[in-house]
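Subject: Sanity check before I submit

Could someone independently write out the structure tokens for this chain? I want to compare against mine line by line before I put it in a report. The sequence has 103 residues.
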Amino acid sequence: MKKRVKVSSNRQLAIPVEFYRNLDEPDEFDVYQDRDRLILVPVRLEDRFREFTREMREHLRRSGLTGEELITELERKKELFNSQLSQIIDEVNQTMQNRDESH
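---
Independent answer below. Compare away.
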């Protein structure tokens, strides 16, 4: 399916509603440039999880922790992750509720 959209004076464009709904109404997109094309890819919850774990792994690698220190820090990070995951789930639930109320 193809649609033509205009770019605003602020360099913004609107995603056609049927495209947006077919993508499950994401609130973020990664944007890539491939020569003369822009590619929009919805950011999904699993993408955020992958990014978080990659950042955590890099942080721990740079910290130089070893042995018991590393285990303790991993447990602390696990608790932090669970808290952040709960927040993301709450945000998703709120978004779904708002979407249901608007339809």
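---
OP: Matches mine. For the report I'm noting this point. The CA atoms of residues 19 and 25 lie 9 Å apart.
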